[in-house]
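Continuing the batch. This is chain 6 of the set; chains 1 through 5 are on the previous pages. Same settings as before, nothing changed between runs. Recording input and output for traceability.
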Amino acid sequence: MQNILKYLKGDRVIWVITLIMLGFSIVSVYSFVPVLVKTEGGTPFKYLFKHLIYISIALGTMYWVHKKNPKYVSQLSKFGFYLAIALLIFTLFGSGVNDAKRWVKIPFVGLSFQSSDFAKLALIIYVSKQLVKKKDKLDHWKEGFWPVVIPIIVICGLIVKDNFSTAAMLFAISLALLFLGRVPLLKVLTLIGGGIALLVFIVLIHKAAPSFNLLPRYATWENRIFNRIHDDENVIENAQALNAQLGIYNGRITTDNFGLVGQGIGDGQLKEYLPQAYADFYYASFVEELGPIWAALLVLLYLILLYRVMRIGLNSDNMFETYLCIGIGMLMLSQASVNMMVCTGIFPVTGQNMPLLAMGGSALIMTCLALGIVQGIAHRQLTSKESEEETADVDILVTE
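Output for chain 6:
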């Protein structure tokens, strides 16, 4: 490990956690894909090979980005924002599942890309840049507030049609960044009220004129919420959520190991019935096979990762880097938290996978890209600190 880490700059703890999680994802994906084999055919090795390709791309991206100066991220923020808009619009004509059009097929290679994964990071970068650029004008609606807020409305508006949970989560993270960026609280509250009012208005139009199909997944959202409220009366409708909770229960009832380390890797049973055991219901499959001790360690790893990312941001002398690190940290923890809360029955069923662990794809690549940016910031901080120490040593020698 030391031989590997000497080539990796930045925060070593983040590198170690990333490599551990990616390494374990190889084992877990191979174990959690039986239901995918049943529904789409192929063999577990097929999906494992595909996942290995994504891991290679993700690690290569993270390594390449972490060697670059973070100033380039700031300079490319506007381009990334407009590219995100273009991808989201193009996705409206892409592949759909359950009336949700989220994926763009990549020609010739047989892989797919979820544009919202890129849009989430692009928006956080752009909002961070705008908060710094408009810091002295945030009291003014036209010159400061709207230039920061309109990008949030546009990106979240394009995502919400097919992925309400992602749009809501991204909107909440953006609000947190606005608050940290010292946008007046009254304006933030106005934005929240306006967003809720706009959503209610669109829902009313959808109900009054369903032929327009403004919200093609509205019935799914409504069913998930009401089925969650009346879960005892809707066993069939809540089959996924109930199977996830049963999987967690199975992880602690083994008799030969005091219920502490689960059924064992590869021996889980509920993954055969969970359609997204390798992604949206990853945590349930994880607890069933590894038990509550490893589940607690997994939560701890995410908290350590959040702490290291936040610390890098708070140690930066550049406010853009501070906002960006905080936004990335909140995004990763939010995704992991929602996945855990869905699996444990706290949240209605929704599509958020576990960062760095779920079966690879655009989410894995964009997570590693985000961590690469954070590592680039950490590398710059360490380089600056070493330069200052060398300068201080030279001054001492000259004085002596």
